[in-house]
Every structure is written in C-alpha cells, then in structure tokens.
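Troubleshooting: if your tokenizer reports a length mismatch, compare your output against this known-good record of 174 residues.
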Amino acid sequence: MSDASPPLTLLSQREIEAKIVAPLLRAVRAELGDEKTRELVRGVIGELARQSGAELAKWLGSETLEAFAPILDRWSEGGALEIELVEKSADRLEFNVTRCRYAEMYRALGLAELGASLSCQRDFALVQGFNPAIRLTRTQTIMEGAAFCDFRFRAPEGSTRPESDLPGPTPGTA
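Known-good structure output:
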C-alpha cells in the first residue's frame, strides 16, 4: 500500500487557490476598485500561465498542437469540464465546453466577477507560453454567462521552435 496521495485535480487546486486569494482580492478591490483589481489579477495570472505553458512545452519536448491536445484530459479531471470535440487534427483543435465546474465553483465562492480573470484568461497565456505561433480564438465563455465556451486552436505549418529553444525544466498546466 502506497503512502503517496493522489495528485490534486486542477479544479481542486483552483478551489484551494480561490479560497486563499478571495479575501485578499476583496481587500484589494476595496482599495483599488474593480477595474484596477481585474487588471492586476490578469497580469499576475497571465504571467504564471505563460510560464506554465513554456514549462509544458519543455516537459513534452514538443510545442505542437498535437502534443498540446492531451492537456484537455488534465483540464477535465474529476468532471471539471464537459467537452464536445468539434475537430482534432495536426493544425486544429476545436471543442466546446458545455459544462464548466470551474465557473460553478467561482460562483459558489462569490467570485463570479473575477472568475474570468482567475481562470479563463489563463488559456490564452498558457498557449502563448507553450507556442506563440498557436492561436486560440474564443468568443464566449460559460463563466461570462454564455451557454458554452467555444475553443478554437490553430497552428500554422512550421510553427515550432528548435527543441534547444524550448524553455523550462518541469511540466506545467497553468
């Protein structure tokens, strides 16, 4: 019998983070106001996600969209996301999220107004850090009240850096 505990799902990790950061964000919002607080959160979370994307590319040894696609399994662990796959190929990854327990969790914690900054915007920065040539387009999110999130990743041909240019030593998932 192993004493090792199973790794946290991303949903559990985000909930722990949100419970810690929520009181701090409320205090910052009282001092700086909504817009300045959102700007601050977007900057910090974005940089953390970019670093995680770069670490993920290094850990995978590849920054192709095909190498990136399995990250959906990590994002969805424990039923965190319900995903409807639209297209998956070497240069396209398209899917809709039809249920987002991240959004449900942020609402339950009273952080609905900051949920997009704490969670959704990570996706763009993660991809930028993973491979700046890959483009993510998303026109709506459940977090912001839509019926589903529409993720559309595109990778142009020849969109990888030489392996020696891949940064970071450890896996990351934003």
